[in-house]
Amino acid sequence: MRGATPWWSPERHADRRPFLLARARIVRALRRFFEERGFLEVDPCCLQHAAGGEPHLHAFATDLHDAAGRPIRPLYLHTSPEFACKKLLAAGERRIVAIGHVFRDREQGPLHHPEFTMVEWYRAQEPYDQLIEDCADLLATVAEAAGARRLVFKGVEVDPFARPERITVAEAFARFAGIDLLSTVAASGETDREALARQVAAAGIRIAPDDSWSDLFARVLVALVEPHLGRGRATILDAYPIAEAALARRSPADPRVAERFELYACGVELANAFGELVDPIEQRTRFAAAMDLKERLYGERHPIDEELLAALALVPESSGIALGLDRLVMLATGAERIEQVLWAPVPLEPR
Q1: Surface-to-core class of residue 195, CB atoms within 10 Å of its CB (0-12 exposed, 13-18 middle, 19+ buried)
Q2: Which of 348, 351, 350 is nearest to 7 (CA)?
Q3: Fewer CB within 10 Å, N side or C side of the chain?
Q4: Structural domain count of the chain
């Protein structure tokens, strides 16, 4: 908004400073948390030659030039340190954490900012469920550092010291939307769009003619499921359908779902975790499909990270998780907008 008081004005900074001091305490506590558990903190470069594999994430692009000013190649500010961290797993690291800035275009709002801080950690040769234990312990650690007995957002509270509820996506769809989600997913992973559309319509959700199965899934998740998650205690939303697996491996218990969970508190998504897919052939297939979708929706596509595909052959069975630090600080401090917990927010006003 034009004419708004800038973040660096003394009076506005004074209002934000309690949140920022709590943020500093939380960051210190997180570093101790990971060090005590044997994690090595790594610091991947922000500039990468591949933007990532998610069709709905938008990267900032630039060009690398030689000393004479001639362009050498396009580069992208990373949307996550994921690719670099997996290459470090291939190199031989086994328990790593990265705490740093990531960049995503087209993201603005109370919980979104184009530059934010991500805490991403990986456990090689350790079970996927261990990440759930990490999340439970981390929430308590952050609350203690902030001096908070509750996490709060928009009047919804969570006890950060209570064990999180664990519920599958299919159970959540049945409980909150009356939808039998897995009846629309075959063992091969193929989805039945029409079968899901009939159930979504019956649940009272508007359907567009060109909605895909994934579009319908997202509509129900946002409108009917997410508002019920992370109330009273945190929620682990587990076992995403394989069509929504992203970079997660197929579950050995049910081929229709993936080893993927998201952590919610106060109705806010805080973290996204995978039992990591390390099959380069399957990963290439998923990347290609994601870029085809990106081109259809947004008229653009990004190069596939061939180095990552080569590195996956050396990555042991691993699990990884990415957590939005700024959102967690908001919930621990009672902040209402993400800019309140950012030391120097990106200017978002139009020129």
Answers
A1: middle
A2: 348
A3: C
A4: 1
Write the CATH number for 113.
3.30.930.10
Model pLDDT for residues 31-48, shown as the tens digit of each residue? 999 999 999 999 999 999
H helix intervals, 111-161 = 129-146
Q: Residue 270 in contact with residue 328, Cβ under 8 Å?
A: yes
pTM, to two decimals: 0.95
Residue 345 is which amino acid?
Answer: P
Q: Is residue 301 part of a domain?
A: no
Residue 119, domain extent:
10-162+306-341
CB 300 within 8 A of CB 289: no
Give all strands (DSSP E) within 230-282, no chain letters.
235-238, 260-265, 268-275
How confident is the model over 269-312, as pLDDT tens digits?
999 999 999 999 999 999 999 999 999 889 988 889 999 999 99
Q: How confident is the model at residue 196 (pLDDT cuts 50, 70, 90)?
A: very high
The β-bridge relationship of strands 318-324 and 115-124 is: antiparallel
Residue 139 lies in a domain: yes
**315 belongs to a structural domain:** yes
- What tokens appear for 310 in the block? 């080569």
DSSP 229: S
Residue where the block lists tokens 């079968």 = 195
Alpha-carbon gap, residue 297 to 74, rounded angstroms: 22
Six token digits for residue 43: 């610091």
Q: Which of 110, 73, 133, 122 is nearest to 266 (CA)?
A: 110
The DSSP bridge partners found for residue 257 are 241
Q: Radius of gyration over alpha carbons of the chain, in Å?
A: 21
Q: Which residues lie closer than 8 Å to 158 by C-beta, 6 or more apart?
A: 150, 151, 152, 230, 231, 232, 233, 234, 265, 266, 331
